[in-house]
Amino acid sequence: MEKVIITVVGKDTVGIIARVCTYLADNHINILDISQTIVDGYFNMMMVVDIAGVDKKFDDIANEIDSVGQDIGVIIRAQKEEIFDMMHRV
Amino acid sequence: MLNIYEVNETNNMIEKDNLDVRTITLGLSLLDCMDSDIDKVCDKIYDRITTKAARLVETGEEISREFGIPIVNKRISVTPIGIVGSAAAKSTDDFVKIAKAMDRARSEVGVNFIGGYSALVSKGMTTADELLIRSIPDALSQTDLVCSSVNLGSTRTGINMDAVRLMGEVILDTARKTKDQDCLGCAKLVVFCNAPDDNPFMAGAFHGVTESDAIINVGVSGPGVVKYALSKVRGEDFETLCETIKKTAFKVTRVGQLVAREASRMLDVPFGIVDLSLAPTPAIGDSVADILCEIGLEKAGAPGTTAALALLNDQVKKGGVMASSYVGGLSGAFIPVSEDQGMIDAVEAGALTIEKLEAMTCVCSVGLDMIAIPGDTKATTISGIIADEMAIGMVNQKTTAVRIIPVIGKGVGDRVEFGGLLGYAPIMPVNQFSCDDFINRKGRIPAPIHSFKN
Hints:
Shape of chain B: globular
CATH topology of the largest domain in chain B: Anaerobic Ribonucleotide-triphosphate Reductase Large Chain
CATH superfamily of chain A: ACT domain
Number of helices of chain A: 3
Strand content of chain B: 15-25%
Helix content of chain A: 25-40%
Largest interface: A-B, 26 and 21 residues
CATH architecture of chain A: 2-Layer Sandwich
Distance between the termini of chain A: 21 Å
CATH topology of chain A: Alpha-Beta Plaits
Oligomer: heterodimer
Distance between the termini of chain B: 52 Å
Number of strands of chain A: 4
CATH class of chain A: Alpha Beta
Order of helices and strands of chain B: HEHHEHHEHEEHEEHHEHHHHEHEEEHE
Number of domains of chain B: 2
Shape of chain A: globular
Order of helices and strands of chain A: EHEEHEH
Number of helices of chain B: 15
Largest sheet of chain B: 11 strands, mixed
């Protein structure tokens, strides 16, 4: 398993989750967990996904999902899980 | 499983509070580049650096993208050139040739500084060491991004006052030779007492002779993150204050440990240490002085500053040591003036003087750093400032350093611009009384009594 954290931050609008999930499904990326909340009026979503077995390089996925974000006017970021694990788990 | 608040906390640290990894520094041994022919030495050094560090920048950028954390600098440190060049260099010009070879190799691999144009002379100078020191003004004025350091003393050996006297002249000469660039040469030159072998930060990085062929050392940063965390506990007691700094330092250092591990794996070079320093930059909010203000001072330099800095430095270390198995380098809080907007403001407001900074260096991780002084300051006065700082390091068994810039043609009230991470600095007044007769004595100051531990 190769876990990647995808975060989406921006102004709430119709279809954000749908667009992100469509991209992930098209690329055979499995979603392990989703949580979503509104912070200070902004849409905030975090997804834990597994990119093991996906042909594309991490860099390509990160760039493509960033462009999906630009299309809908939100910031989408993909980061490997270790940075969060290292910081928040002893 | 991670939750959204933890993920947001990390990303806010990166985006809003300037959390970054300040440097991945590849330490390279050049001991086997020694030769009696100077051109061969230069060729071997160039080949070693361009081969071993070929993928350093690319790897740093890849790690940065994977974790979404900026890695600001990729750098190289090498074995002190005073040793590497000793068999071949017969003149200062020979040493300058080596500096140029280092700079060419640096440019080829794309790193933004190479350190190790250094001499370790804490007890005495070899002929080669002295030649290297005398070549520093030319080397730094004829290369772009080579950094130089000289270790002038240690708790074990005492202080080499002949070298201290010489460095006063060398610093002034370096300033004169780079006066067209606002005396930038002096920003690339630092003198130490108790210099560590594994410091990843410039200008003082060199690859110690106790190190292996190659090593990855990582320097973390994060003053903005500490300041933000402290802004949430205003008015709370000291225990809460200390706990907050410790927890934040832990989180910041963990990121450094992760980056160091990944870089080591990807480059197939052993991991050395994480240096858990709070290293400020001129960016707003990335300031150690601002942390001191957040702790409760009106300006850095106010009464209480030394105590606040001592507390900060200690808690950073306590939080950081648990986050990484190998902590080293300088590790603590840096207090450069020109690289820290809060320090600059404090100097301009009249709150912070060189004397107060000297007191602060007793309890922080390094020393008098990036301080601009009038260009007409005497060489002996610079040596006197250095000697004071070396004595603090020697007696307190800690690393101290001096990176001071006499700005030719400028005086108190003027400003000097270095640009980029080096920032800008107001020229600070220097005590005008003479120490000529003290500095002009020959020889060295003996090691202190507490060095005899055998």
